[in-house]
Amino acid sequence: MAQNQPQVWLTKADRTALFTRQATGLKLSAAKNKQPVIVINDKKTFQSIDGFGYALTGGSAQHIVKMSAPARATLLKELFATNGNHIGVSYIRLSIGASDLNEKVFSYNDLPEGETDLEQAKFDLGPDKADVISVMKEILAINPKIKIMGSPWSPPLWMKTTYDARGGMLKPVYYAAYAKYFVRYVQEMRKEGIPIDAITVQNEPLHPGNNPSLFMAAPDQALFVKQFLGPAFVKANIRTKIIIYDHNADRPDYPISILDDPEAKKYIEGSAFHLYGGKIEALTDVHNAHPDKNIYFSEQMVVEEPDATTINIINPVTRLIIGATRNWAKNVLEWNLAADWENKPYTDRGGCSMCQGAVTINGDHYNRNLAYFSIAHASKFVRPGSVRIASYEPDGLANVAFKTPDGKYVLIVANTGKTAAAFKISLKDKTYTAALDKGSVATYIW
C-alpha cells in the first residue's frame, strides 16, 4: 500500500468482510463532482478519549479462566494488544461485587442477617480472586495502561432496607460504612496490582429489578457523595474518579440535579450513561449544563443471532461508537466481554438471559460476535489520549473523526442509507474518494 494512502478497515453487512484491512487504501480524488463530502476540521476539537471496551463480568472471567493457558493467552492478546489484527481494547468495567452476569450473588462483606461491620474489618475480595482478578492481571500484563471502572450492583445486604439482593435502598445509617466499602475496594484492588481509575456510585440506580440491584434516588446519591464517599476518598488519599448516575439517557435530570449541588459537584468527575432508554443527544444536554464535568458511556448490550448470515454493524457503531462520542463521551463500553452459547452464567430472579458476550467461549474455542466488531472499529486506532475533531455528516453517512496522540487521523463511517454510497473525505488540502455498501462500516486511518 502506498504510504500516502489511508488504511481502510471494513465490515460489510453480508459478512464478506469482518473488520478486515483492505488491500487498497483510499486514493486521492482529482475529479470534481457532486458526491457528498465528509469534511474533517482538525482545528475544532472536542473531548479527549479514555478508551473503548467491555465489562469483564464475573461470568466473562469464569469462562476465560477455564481456558487452557495457551488458548487464554491467544484470546487476551487478540483483545488487548494493538499489533497485527489485535483490536486493542483500552477500557474495562468491573462489577464491585456480583453483577447479574455472575453465577451467584455476593458482596465483599456478606454477613448473616442482623450482623454489621461498620469498619469493614471483614471486607474480602473473595470470589473475584478465583477469576476476575487473575484475568485482570493477565490483561494488565498485555496493556499496563488500560483504564478500569468499577460499578456496584448492590451493597452488602445488611446495609439495605430489605435483606435482599434485589431492590431496596441503602439505609442512611450505613452511608459511612458503605463509603469505607468503596475505599477498601480501591485499596484491596491496588494491592492486587489492579488500579481502579474510576468508580460509579451505583449501576442503574433507577432499576431495582435486577438481581442484584439497588434503588438510589438522585437526592440520596448527592448526599452520599458529598457527605460520605467524597470525603472518605479524600481522607484515604484515593484519587479514583467518582462518576454519578450510570443509567439510561432518558433521565438527564438525575445527574444534572446532583451536579447542581456545589458540595457534591466538587467530588465528582462526571456522569455515566446507558442507552436502553432515551436519546443519545441527552449526553450533550448534561455536558451543556455542566461543561466542566466529563461524560462517560458505561454500558450497552449488543446482540445478534448466533448463526446470522448478515451483521447489523451499523446499529451499535452509529448509536454508540459514533453517537456517544459525538455527544461528548470519553469512552464507550459494551456489555459484556464473554459468555457461553447459552449466554450463561447469569443470576436467578433477574439476571440477564439474553446478554451475549463480545466473544462466545466454548472450551478453548471462541466466536467473535457483533459487540467484538463494533468496538474493534474504534478501539484499535482511537487510542487513549485521542481527541475528537469536527467532521461534517452528510445524510446516510454517520461518522466521527479523531486525532490520535501520535498525530494520526481516524475517521469511522457507517453507511446508514438505503443504497451503496460513493463519497469523498476531505482533510486539510487533500480529498480522497471512498465508497461503502449499504449497511457497511469502515475505519480510515492516515
What are the main properties of this structure?
446 residues; alpha/beta; 10-stranded mixed sheet; 8-stranded parallel barrel; 24% helix; globular
Question: Would you mind describing this structure in some detail?
Answer:
This protein has 446 residues and is α/β, with parallel strands linked by helices. Helix content is 24%, strand content 27%. It is built from 10 helices and 21 strands. The strands form 3 sheets. Strands 2-1-21-18-17-16-4-19-20-3 form a 10-stranded mixed β-sheet, covered by helices on one side. α8 (282-289) links the parallel β10 (270-278) and β11 (294-299). α9 packs parallel to α10 (370-379). The chain is globular.
Main sheet: strand order = 2-1-21-18-17-16-4-19-20-3
Number of strands: 21
Q: Estimate what percentage of residues fall within beta strands.
A: 25-35%
Low-confidence stretches: none
Rough outline: globular
Helix content: 10-25%
Helix segment count? 10
State the secondary-structure class.
Answer: alpha/beta
How much is the average pLDDT?
97
Main beta sheet: strand number and arrangement?
Answer: 10 strands, mixed
